[in-house]
Amino acid sequence: MMSKVISLRLKDYQVESLARAARRMGRSPSETAAILLSEALRQRDFPFIEFRDSSVGRQAYLQGTRLTIWQIVEIARDYGGDIASTAEHLDTPKVQIAAALKYAAAFPEEIEAAISDNEWSADHIEQLVPNVKVMNVDAPSA
After folding, report:
1. Low-confidence spans in the chain with pLDDT less than 70
2. How far apart are CA 4 and CA 41, in angstroms?
3. Residue partners of 49: CB distance under 8 A and separation at least 6
4. Among the four 5, 58, 72, 110, which has the fewest Cβ within 10 Å?
5. Do residues 60 and 51 lie in contact, with contact meaning Cβ atoms separated by under 8 Å?
6. pLDDT tens by residue, 100-137
7. Which residues, in sequence order, are bridge partners of residue 57?
8. Please, which residues bridge with residue 68 across strands?
């Protein structure tokens, strides 16, 4: 993917806010501005999507919920991609589930990487958290 350099005029308070965000994200102000602009443009293009900081970095969430988009995708897969069943399971409007799945379809690499990272963490929980004992429980299928 090509990138181009553009210049922006920012007000002093915007520069200060960007510098704070860059420190929190561990990135340069330029990298941070590019990330935040990309997220803002995605939020304009995809209703019900918002970006938040999490313990694993910035992630796409379903607006007004604690659900990341990758979590919704995993649940939707359990229901064979059926939006109505996924919405019922999550007690969330179908239009929001459809929006989440459209976002996921537009950015599959991002979503698959998050799912893969979560699966790795689940497989290595005993290594990651001292004194944890994993117990397997049979649960009814979805």
Report:
1. 121-122, 142
2. 16
3. 42, 43, 60, 61, 62, 63, 69, 99, 100, 103
4. 5
5. yes
6. 999 999 999 999 999 998 887 667 777 777 777 777 78
7. 54
8. 61
Cβ distance 18 to 10 under 8 Å? Answer: yes
Q: What is the structure's pLDDT at 142?
A: 60
Residue that the structure tokens 């690499």 belong to: 109
- What amino acid occupies position 57? G
